[in-house]
Structure formats: C-alpha cells, structure tokens
Predict the 3D structure of the following.
Amino acid sequence: MNDGAPTLQVDNLETHFFTKDGVAKAVDGVSFSVGRGEIMGLVGESGSGKSVTGFSILGLVDPPGRVVGGRVLFQGTDLLTLDAEGLRQLRGNRIAMIFQDPMMTLNPVLRVDTQMIETVRAHDASVSEDAARARARDALGQVGIPSPDERLRAYPHQFSGGMRQRVAIAIALLNKPDLIIADEPTTALDVTIQGQILYEAQKLCRETGTALIWITHDLAVIAGLADRISVMYAGRIVEQGDLGDVLDRPAHPYTRGLLGSVPGHNTRGKRLYQIPGMTPSLLNLPRGCAFKARCPHGDEACDVAPDITTPLPGRALRCAHPQLDAGGRAP
Amino acid sequence: MTVFIIRRIMQSLAVVLVMSFIVFGGVNIVGDPVEMMVSDEATQEEREKVIRSMGLDQPWYVQYGRFVAGALEGNLGKSFVYGEPALEIIIHRIPATLELALAALLLAVVIGIPLGVYAGLKPDTVASKSIMAGSILGFSLPTFWVGLMFIMVFAVMLGWLPSTGRGDTVPLMGVDVSFLTLDGLAHLFLPALNLALFKISLVIRLARAGTREVVHQDYIKFARAKGLRNSRIVLVHLMKNIMIPVVTVLGLEFGGLIAFSVVTETVFAWPGMGKLIIDSIQSLDRPVIVAYLMIIVLIFVIINLVVDVLYSILDPRVRLSEIKS
Amino acid sequence: MSDAAATPAAATPAETVKVETPFRRFCRDYADSRVATAALAVLAAIILLALFAPWISPTDPYDLASVSILDGKLKPGSQSMDGMTYWLGTDGAGRDLVSAIIYGLRISLGVGVMSGVFALCIGTAVGLAAAYFGGRVDAFIMRVVDIQLSFPAILIALILLAILGKGVDKITIALVIAQWAYYARTVRGSALVERNKEYIEAAQCLALGHNRIVFRHLFPNCLPPLIVVGTIQTAHAISLEATLSFLGVGLPISEPSLGLLISNGFDFMLSGLYWISFFPGVALLVTIVAINLVGDQLRDVLNPRLQK
C-alpha cells in the first residue's frame, strides 16, 4: 500500500484520433494526480478532451483514437503497459467509471439484478449468486433507491433518468473501488437530483477514501464539490490548483472567462459575459497557445506553446500572460 | 398480455377467412372444374349429372358456404388424381416438409449467427470480407440451381451423399421422421442446406448489422468499464440485443422456408407438400390445390402469431407498451 | 453533448469551394466501390446482349431448320458439322448453348424488368395515396400490404399461376401482384416522412390540387429508396421467374427463359452432361449477382443523403 502516494498519477498523457481528415490531438500532454479521498474536478467545454482523458485512463478509447504517449500510474502500476486481462481485472473493481447518459448506459434487455450481479462475479467468481444479490441490494440502498428488492428485478426502462443514474453509481460502488471516474454524471439530470448526488458523492469520498475524478463542463457543479480543479482547453490543461484558490484568483484568461460567464447575483441586469469566438477544431489547431485567438491578452509571445509554469504556490498554469490580480473575473 | 394475444388471434381468423374466399373463388370460379371430370365425348346429360352431383349448379355463395362447412369438418374435397380426401393426402406429407424446413432453420441459426457476429466484430479481416461476399452470393443464387449443383458435385461427381429422396424413417410420437437414422440424415443434409442457403445469408447480414450497431452503444462500453470478460459481453449483452431482430425475421421467414421447400422438394424429389402442389398444379387437381393453399395460409397465420408473441417475450419493452395501451 | 463517443466534436475545416452537381457527386460516390462499378459494367454488357440478341447470337436456336439433333449433347468446345464451334456445348435437341443462353437472357430479363416496372407503378401509386390521404385510407391499405407481405412471393405467384395457368402475360401478372406490395410499403414510408413536413401543409393551404402536391412534392423524395428497392426487387423477380419456369409452372416452352433451359438440362445432369444446366445457371447467377451488387451500392450511396 502506498500511503501518501497519490491513488492516480497521470503524466503527459497523449491520445490522438487518426481520422481521414487528419490527426486530432484530443489529449495533448495532460498531467494531474488525485490522492486518497480527494475529488479532482476536470472542467472544460465540449471538445476540450476531458471525456477522452477519462476513457484513456481506463483504456476505453475506441478507434480511430489511440493513446500514444504518457504514463498513467494507478497505485504505482502504469495502466498503459497492462495487457487486456490486467486492465479488465481493474475495471469495475479497483477503478470504476460512471457515464454521462443514464438512458443508454444500462443494457435495456437485461434486468438490473443481472447487470449488477455480473459485475460482482466478474471479479470474484467465488461469490455465490445470493451473496452477490445481497451486495447489489445494499448498493442500491446506499444510493437511496427505495424498495431495492423489487427494483432489482426490474428492467432499466422502468426507472426514471435520475434513478438509472443512481443504479449506475451503485454499480460503480459494488466492488468498493479505490478510484471512480465520473464523466458528466449529472448533466442529464435535473438540478435537485444533481444536488443530492453531489452531496452523496462528497460524503462517500470522505468516508471511504475513494478518489474521484469528476468530469464536467459546469463550473457551478464543481464549485460545490471538488478539492482541486484542472481546467482543460483544446486537449491541454491550462490551469490547475486547489479549488478555492483557483476560483478566488483565476490566473488563466480562459478560466476567468469561464467564471465570468457563470450567472451570479452581482451580474443581474447586466448582459451575460461570453468568451468571444469558438473552440478551434482539433484537426486544425494553431501553433502556440490554442486560446490566443479568443484571448484579450494574446500577442506574439503566445505563438509558442506555453510551458507549465507555477506563478502562484500550488498552481500550475500554461499561459504567457498570467492574470494575477486577486478577485479577477471577466478579463 | 392476454388482450394482446386475443386481439392477434381475431386478426388471424379474419385473414384466414378472407384467404379462403379468395382461394375458393379463384380456383373454382375462374376455371371450369367440370372439364376435368368428364371426357370430351360426354353427352350434355352426363355433364349435367356431374355438375349436379358436385353442386356446381348452385349459386356461388351456396357453393362457398358448403365449402366452408365442409372445411370446418375437415372435408376439403377429394383429389381428382388420387381419389382420396385431399386433406388427408396433404397432412400425410406435412411431416416431411416440416422436417426439411426445421432442419434448414437450424442450419441457418447455427451457421449464420456465429458467422454474422464475427463479421460484425471484426469487419476488416479477410475472413469477414469473404463472409460478406459469400452472403451476397448466398441470396442471389437461385435455390433450384444450387440444388442442382449440389447434386452434381456431391452425389454424381463425388458420390458422398445420396442424390434424391428421403432416407429411412422411424416413427416419433406417431410421426415418421428421418433425422433419427443415419441414412435419413444423409438424405436430409443436402436438401436442408440448399433450402437454408438463402436464410443463412440473410441471418449473416442481420447478425452483422445488428452487431455493428450494438457494439457502439454506450451499454457495451459500460459493460467493458465494469470489467466483464469479452465472452460474456458478446454472448450475453450483445446476443440478447441482436436476437430480437434476428428472431423476428427468422420467424417471418420460416414461412418462406415452407414455401420455398416447393423448389427444393422438386429438385431432390423429397416427398413433401411442396412436390405435391407442383404436381397438382400441373395435373390440375383442384381439390388438392385448394386444400394445400388453405393449409399453407393457416400455417402462415399461426407462424405470424407465434412470432408476435415470442417477440414480446424477448423484448420486455414491447410487452410493457402493450399493457399501457 | 455526449463526449462519450470516441470522436471529439470538432468544427469542420473550411471547405474548398467547388461546384459539383448532385448527379456528379452521386456518380463519384458510386464509383468508390470498385466491385460495384465492375458489377454495373457487367450488367450493362448483359443488357446489351439481351437487347441485341438476334444480331449478336451465333445461331438462332429456335429456328428449327438450323438445329439438328445430330448435334445434340455435344461437349463444350466441340465442333458442329459445318465447322462452327459450340463454345458451351449443345443441349439435348442440338441447340447451341451460347445462343440459347443469349435468347434466354433476353426473356428472363424482359419479363423480370417489365413486371418490375408495372409493380413499381402500381405500388408507388398506392403508397403515395396511402401516405397522402392518411387516416382510414392509409390504415386499410397498409393492412392489405402487411398481410400480403406476410406471405412469401413465391407462394403468391404459385397461387396465381394455379388459377391463371401458363403464359407470358399470366406470369407477368403473377409477378406484378407478388411484388407491388414491397414498392407500396417503401414509397409510403418515405412519402410519410415528407408529408409531415410543413411545406406540404403550406401547399395544401394554397389549395394546390392533390395531384400536384403528390407528384411534384411527395414523389421526388421517394425516388432514392425506390431506386434501391426497384433494383433489388428486379433481381428477385428474375430469380422468381426462373424458379417458376424451372418448376414447370412459369413460362411456356415457346418462351424459353433461363429457368426452362436449366430445367431441360436437369435430366441430363445425372448422366454427367452437366453443361446443359450449368451454363444457363451461371448466366442467371451473374445477372442476379450483378444487379444485387449494384443495388447494394446504390443503397449505401443514396441513404446517407436521405438523412441530411
């Protein structure tokens, strides 16, 4: 066991998509770490590469995509060097994943108990079916699903969206994983359910020491949940640090833009801020900083891809012009 | 569920009734049955006697009524050629046809599904591409010609298998079946394969299309994320999802198997219903034709009914929506 | 906005400005498959053979004067009495197989295409009517179509031929009746998609006549799937006619299609004279496979367009 060492350490991960229109660098040198019981928020717009990062960790990237470089150290073992069987043994067992769309995550023609029991028995064939069913029932109870015995015998389409996602979360918890990767798990749910699930997720991590990577585009969700935050843009992490610090003092113009566009009570009546321009196509990234075209501070210095700097303690940044005045919001 | 079944049964009965009308009308009214019964030199009086004895002088609705009444009792007329009740003759031949059709169905499933799933999982391999090319051949080749080629290659040139006829039979629950004897199997194999060829191609394409569609679904990715073994993902998660369209089509096509057995039975001289109908059409044995058509319609209606019910069992979403409506 | 799919959502790169008519693009997309292009070439050759049979065929196999039974059952490559080579051999009565096949192609193709065209017209009209008028009309028509489609085409053809008897016109009728339902269902499906769009409502508000709405607006959108179904159905029709002729309930002897040729050769086969059935079969096979390949590629090329 490695106390003190992070549960997950990602170094310079690169995942590229080889399409007939060119190579898209969906994940272009991403590094972060998550410790025991820590919640890391991975934030970015769609197309920023955050979901692909999550899939890359578990080796679930589909062709034409492929992990082409970097290291993913899970409790000391580099996942990228594991063979298929080695990965299979970790998935759903020590590392679990929750997907975004609860509608399609569960197989519609199989009962819920089947789908839960198989998760248990895939990793420990010695567990009897009844024992596995008992664990499934407990997991359902843990996520707050009433009358779990009846629910177990039901089919996915008989559940509402929020319930289905809870089932998916229950499945993730079945084998008491050390790391959970949650890919926008509450995006498709309504706000009240979202709040409940966020609260329960936080409680869980604190109690069991499970590390959690929460991938989302919604800063508001992260603000109430995570310990640390990584902001992604066009396949790279542009800012990383403790949540409170980053939210108080965002150093990257993009982060500022994101924060500025969150409706808050002091912008009531004023026009909502929007970062001008659009995310660039990953097939056609400019050389240098990918955000330059939309950034009010961009200049020739930004034509070279910025390296990772540490302008503030505990903060990683990729920017030639860090915005270091405190309390900054919109650039 | 029962409401659903009852409704389907009522529909099926309606279809049978309509078809009986069409068949009866077509065969007995469009043609002139009397021509068959009497020789050319018969006098007018003799003709009229025959007409009266067959009830052909009655208006059509009376004739039809008698036909239906007779049918319900199991009397569909006597064969002109064999002199025996048409229904009996046909029923006597049904087991042979069913045996052939079921054997073909089995071959289609056993050969088609694994090949199709493989082609769907690994679409870019040489094996996959050959399977798909083979499937195009399989459903373009006219069944009768393939049958001829089979006979020529396997029976005449290689001498491995017998060329025509049905093998030894043993009674099973009162019905004579040939698959329980070795000789029977040898005789059954080529015709069954011939009949199945079209269906195998169909199943391969269905299974492949279904596999390619299902493999990209989120729930398959989720199954992998749960750490399930590949074998389980393919055999349970994938299979159950592609079985639905495959079963539906196969069920509907089973009727096609019975219909197409007409061809295979003729080529291989297999003594089933199909050969009987061809002979009857050629010899204009109308009662047998009518009886055959009625029975075939009945078989089809039953098959469609069974498939509908099976479908609702396999796909729980269908059941639920029926209950709701 | 699910990034769960593997490819990231990317804005398309700037497109080069090039004017290309839809037809050109269709040809280019079609030619993407070499197999399908080859199939099209083969098909064109077959059609030409069939059309110009009397001029291309080495002999006229049905001219009784030129056929001698002494030439019968000759192997492929044999010589005739007057020095002509029978490339594919002769049949039992001494007819040159190459000529018989060419003429047979003509009949098979002719009957298949003609019945297909009629079935297409009828099916399209019915399908359009069902889609346009909707409601009870639609329900009734579709019920009939569904019921007919639940019976295999060969059965329907058998029933009809049992009633009607032999003859070119009768088999054409049987084939048409066996096929129209496929066309009707396809056309109704795509017409329905169009019908629910607003511009049809607008046209109705303008009190444009039914005919005009149906033919100018609904129909063109049904063309792509219709073309695909038409191609594949024609292959079925040709196969069906061959099967029926082989069984002896199809075309009469005076119109020898490929099916009849094959049937004639059946008896000889068991004595090892394989060519009499084999070569007509190959000709039939090549025709059907070519049509199916073309139809497959048409379907692939035309479909994504529908979804745009």
